[in-house]
Amino acid sequence: MIIPPPPEIIPAEKLGHVHFVGIGGAGLSGIARIMLARGMTVSGSDVKDSPTLTALRALGATVYVGHDPSHLDGVDTVVVSTAIKENNPEVVEARRRGLLLYSRASALSAVMDGRRVAAVSGAHGKTTTSSMLAVALQHCGADPSFAIGGNFNDTGTNAHDGTGDIFVVEADESDRAFLQYSPEVAVITNVDPDHLDMYESREDYHRAFDAFADRIVPGGFLVACIDDPGARRVAEAARARGIDVRTYGESPEADVRVDNVQLHPLSSTFDLVVDGRRVGSVDVHVAGRHYTLNAAAAFTAGLGLGFPSAQLREGLSSYTGTRRRFEYKGSAGDIRVYDDYGHHPTEMVATLRAARSAAGDGRVVVCFRPLRHTRTKFFHKELGEALGLADEVVVMDPTGDDPIPGVTGALIVPHIPLPAERIVYERSWSAAPVRVAERVRPGDLVLTLGAPDVALIGPEVLELVGGRDDADAGAGDNDQDIRG
Length: 484
Fold this sequence. Notes:
Blueprint: E1 18-21, H1 26-37, E2 42-46, H2 51-58, E3 62-65, E4 77-80, H3 89-97, E5 100-103, H4 104-112, E6 116-121, H5 126-139, E7 145-147, E8 159-160, E9 166-170, E10 185-188, H6 202-213, E11 221-225, H7 229-240, E12 245-249, E13 256-264, E14 267-274, E15 277-284, H8 290-304, H9 309-317, E16 327-332, E17 335-340, H10 345-359, E18 364-369, H11 373-387, E19 392-395, E20 423-425, H12 432-437, E21 445-450, H13 457-466
Parallel strand pairs: 1-2, 1-4, 2-3, 4-5, 6-9, 6-10, 7-9, 10-11, 11-12, 12-13, 17-21, 18-19, 18-21, 19-20
Antiparallel strand pairs: 7-8, 13-14, 14-15, 16-17
Helix pairs in contact: 1-4, 5-8, 5-9, 6-7, 8-9, 10-11
């Protein structure tokens, strides 16, 4: 559900009792945390209970499981998740009562009012880059507020109301929400067309990032990855319009250059060169070359905000990651399980390359659950091609939006460049862990990939492989083609 922005944003403290419809989601839960920290009255509802709801209750929120018009008694403002439908009973009642309706972006703008905003955008890498920037600034002695789309591994939270004047926000482009922010620092990690159900075309998607750059306040600056063709185009056009632009990447043309990258199974080390001067190295304790660029983006933004190079690098080296970004889930014997949110083909390629490095001599066995039927419709060929970087693949049906006739995981399977016996299309949720477990051999790395609920598959796989004799491992190698 898309709610247009109000004529003017009211500061959060003046919104009264705020009720969140879909409060358990990554976006709304973070805003609710910040409002609770400011002493505001917060309530919310969601379709099912979760650890997130439990945490919000502990912080003082009144949280309901299920949606009901009575939940709006005493409420002044209603914040609605984009996943909520127009006919939701609480939304219908809010309109009937004439309550103030805010989207996630409008609510974020309200809590960011009066702060120096550092907004991190891009098709991929937003959560990691924004969380890296928050950690780096904390290490410099600042106490920034932040609202990101994933939970920190060490704290388990996705938002914080800091005492400092900087607010780090993950600026989501999926519903054009990032066009409501007015950042001092705007970061564009990449421009790789996605969400084509929301944008008229790939060109329309690119134009949205141009408009985002134009939202930078006077005296602010744009940070863009010069290695990415889309981000580079936005940067060049922005500079031509008089915007201060700072670039980063491995290209010799970058203002902040990533050099001497050394990849390790679960980390990487690289040097930073600023305006031609080598300033030192960073150790990133997450797997994958793409994380070196995320760290460089955070460093460039922090440097532009006036923080010292050495402390920023130390802070980045202390970063431990966020949930669902190549997150270690456990092991059974010498079989390890990781989970990752990668759902766009470009993200999947980066994650699978990291998995390949981490697997060492073992194989990579993937269970992929596409996120959104619309993405599967537009990108099924590219999704399949990305999965070719694995050794064994179990493909499930998409989730996360309304079904589209004929759009299932089966669309992806013909495009996976692996032998037929290495691929399974599994329609049954309960059978998916079994399908994965029967294909796993000692030494393999299992990766659950895609939609949030696929993370639940990993623990079941560990239980299955932990209780079997190794003689049973790899039984799936002799399966017939069951891709249909």
